[in-house]
Amino acid sequence: MASRYYNPEQRSSAASCASCPYLSVCVSEGVLDSDPDELDVLVEHVGPIHAGQHIVRQGDAFDSIALVRVGTLKSVCVDREGREQTQSFHMPGDVLGLAAISEGVHPCSVIALDTVMLCRFSFPRVSEAALRMPALQNKLFRLMSRDIGRTTGLTGNRTADERLAAFLLGMADRFERLGYSRDHWQLTMSRMDIASYLRLAPETVSRLFRRFQEEGLLAVEGREVELVERDRLEAMASSAMAA
Amino acid sequence: MASRYYNPEQRSSAASCASCPYLSVCVSEGVLDSDPDELDVLVEHVGPIHAGQHIVRQGDAFDSIALVRVGTLKSVCVDREGREQTQSFHMPGDVLGLAAISEGVHPCSVIALDTVMLCRFSFPRVSEAALRMPALQNKLFRLMSRDIGRTTGLTGNRTADERLAAFLLGMADRFERLGYSRDHWQLTMSRMDIASYLRLAPETVSRLFRRFQEEGLLAVEGREVELVERDRLEAMASSAMAA
DNA sequence: CGGAAAGTTGAGTGGGATCAAGCCGCGTGG
DNA sequence: CCACGCGGCTTGATCCCACTCAACTTTCCG
């Protein structure tokens, strides 16, 4: 189809030679102004973790947060009846585990969707460091605040069309922000994951992809997606939200 | 019906003679150990605010968070098409505005449902104080973390029955935690608010209340609700969530 | 090559939305 | 005082979107 789009296979080979992990979060915020070495002792590099492996399991005791360096993940909760429910998808730059702080227990399992590299930070140490580094405290506040309201995929969208359109546009934004092609990329999650996230039946998601393609909105082939008529998708998705 | 249940009318008269507002948040956490006077300069008492009045409007610049002392409120977002969507309900002890930190702009309007008293805290000052008061920082982290995942009323519940049952049980828990009767209280929000929150049509909510009553689960009369068969409601609501 | 999981497609159904009408409580003004 | 209007709430009739069930194809991995 096109040239440089997000592709898990290609990308994961480049993962190993990446630069220092917490830079992307902290440098831009000026955190390192205060003491560059201070964060070094906090960070623990984790990975590579392969598709399907758990980072945390629902109910695990909370002790650390983690920054996604490369790869994508999903958060999954199971309710009492054992039904699985995808809560969110995570991409490089996202921070995992913030929802676990209040209870001290992880409310969701987090599972890698492709090959993943993380930086883990002991939370007690990070919060202690934040007392001395106002910019870090501020960063944490903003990260947590951002996650409020982001949790589910149907903030205001009601119909299946609206939800899928909003989901695709959210993915597009995230890829663009990461420096990849905005309108042409590869999904890392299965149709079932998407369905679970959007609270639709897998069959419905499948039908929607076909119909969007028939209507000229998308070009889809397996997990490869190209947004053809972005504006019409935006018109469908009423609310701003995303993945 | 019964004796001491949450009743907006009675309660609001007692509001004026209440004790110092931030104590409920801070004392129990040991924050005041460090310096009791420090928080005094931060807090600004607001209210009484009457039903229907706005605390903040969607799009307002963010500068402060607020602790609900008395009364109940709702957060409402409007999407591009102008459809209103109730995001959450707030009760005494809840903290408002945390979702606005990341963008610096309030994503929702907050509207009083009955007579409300607040304590407002300048956020720049609070976060600055948090640098010197570890317990306060911790409290803020936990408050924000708690709001992640709490945002919408259908975390895992799918059918209308499940959602309403979960909503009612959530309300029950909150009333109980505030020291009111757990199973007998007065709703402060309209049927339309509930419908919007649960993403159901108002007609559906109305029918559900009637059916729950017919089945002996509830006793409803206007906004007065009594949970008759709590266990059966719990069996209906699969996921833990609430209001 | 074979088995399993993921994905697609079709047919039928039902839950909740929509449309429409009427009721009730309340404030307003004549 | 009653008439009126309005908004919240209820109830009924109908419709349609998305779920379910079922069969089949494709892909993935051994």
Describe it for me?
Two copies of one chain form a homodimer. In chain A, a hairpin with a 5-residue loop joins strand 4 (73-78) and strand 5 (84-90). With 243 residues, chain A is an alpha+beta fold. The longest helix of chain A is centred in the C-terminal third of the chain and has 18 residues, at 160-177. In chain A, helix 6 packs across helix 9 and helix 7 (191-198) crosses helix 8 (202-214). Chain A has a four-stranded antiparallel β-sheet. Chain A folds into two domains: 8-147, Jelly Rolls, CATH 2.60.120.10; 160-236, Winged helix-like DNA-binding domain superfamily/Winged helix DNA-binding domain (Arc Repressor Mutant, subunit A). The first copy, chain A, is built from nine helices and eleven strands. Chain A is 35% helix and 22% strand. Chain A has helices at 8-14, 23-26, 36-40, 123-132, 134-147, 160-177, 191-198, 202-214, 230-236, and strands at residues 43-49, 54-56, 64-70, 73-78, 84-90, 95-96, 109-112, 116-122, 184-186, 218-221, 224-227. The interface between A and B is large, with 42 and 43 residues. Chain A binds a DNA duplex (30 and 30 nucleotides) through helix 8.
